[in-house]
Write a structure and sequence with these properties.
single chain
Length: 261
């Protein structure tokens, strides 16, 4: 059915994972006493910040050099491992990425950002079944500054595993903290559609549309929700926007094939 066909995209679940790169310069781990250790920590902080800046500009080779230097200067500085893990992930080195994420957790085992980032990586790489303990640790961090992000990530990970009820519970908690956070609104639209609650799905996709950016995944979902409700005019609006903005996308191809059937 169209519901099952759409579920493979998980309502943009993989794109919805929020990676929190807040460089908590003192929170993740404290350096040992001594001038050399203090200097090493400061140098690691500087090179981590530089590495992230170069990575954000797409200068991956220089970023890699800076982040490797940061890890060498203070191997216990968890943010350096986290940002290095993200860089390895971006360049397709998932084995190296996982090692760095695990090192970050090793040196900051109770830190919410570190655990959320590792759990989200596990979900992105098809290891969703291993992510739950790390999400729970992140949720349990009383100093976690963006709890709606970790709840949304945990919800999307459960959605990826096909556990709609657990996903919905997490996503609702995310929206309780921040009711305009776009990722859980889209995922809730997807869950509602899969459960056949199309009026509720429409309400969530409309809320998402008001605060988020419609992409090929959300346009396809909007098209399918309105088609299920029998609103051909609204469905056609989503279809036209999908074809005009993303003509070569798999989603546009799905709509074209569906209309031929």
């Amino acid at each position: 059915t169209t519901q099952r066909a759409y579920s493979r995209k998980n309502g943009g679940a993989m794109k919805a994972f929020g990676l929190v790169l807040i460089l908590l310069l003192a929170a993740c781990a404290s350096p040992s006493s001594g001038t050399d250790n203090e200097n090493g920590r400061k140098a690691a902080e500087t090179n981590t910040s530089l590495g992230q800046a170069y990575m954000d500009r797409g200068q991956y080779e220089i970023a890699l050099e800076k982040l490797k230097r940061a890890v060498a200067q203070d191997k216990s500085y968890a943010p350096a491992h986290t940002v290095l893990g993200l860089l390895y992930e971006r360049i397709g080195e998932d084995t190296q990425a996982e090692h760095q994420y695990r090192e970050a957790v090793r040196y900051a085992p109770d830190n919410g950002d570190v655990n959320n980032n590792y759990a989200s990586f596990l979900c992105r790489t098809g290891q969703a079944d291993k992510a739950e303990p790390y999400f729970q640790t992140a949720i349990g961090d009383p100093f976690y500054q963006t709890p709606w992000v970790v709840y949304a990530n945990a919800g999307n990970c459960s959605l990826q595993r096909g556990d709609l009820d657990k996903a919905e519970a997490y996503l609702r908690q995310s929206l309780e903290f921040n009711n305009t956070y776009a990722p859980p609104l889209l995922s809730m639209a997807n869950i509602s559609y899969q459960k056949g609650s199309n009026l509720r799905a429409r309400a969530f996709i409309q809320r998402f549309e008001a605060v988020g950016t419609m992409n090929e995944e959300s346009l396809l979902l909007g098209y399918r929700i309105e088609s299920a409700l029998g609103d051909s005019r609204s469905a056609d609006r989503y279809r036209q926007e999908l074809i005009e903005r993303h003509p070569n996308s798999p989603e546009a191809g799905q709509v074209a094939r569906q209309e031929k059937e």
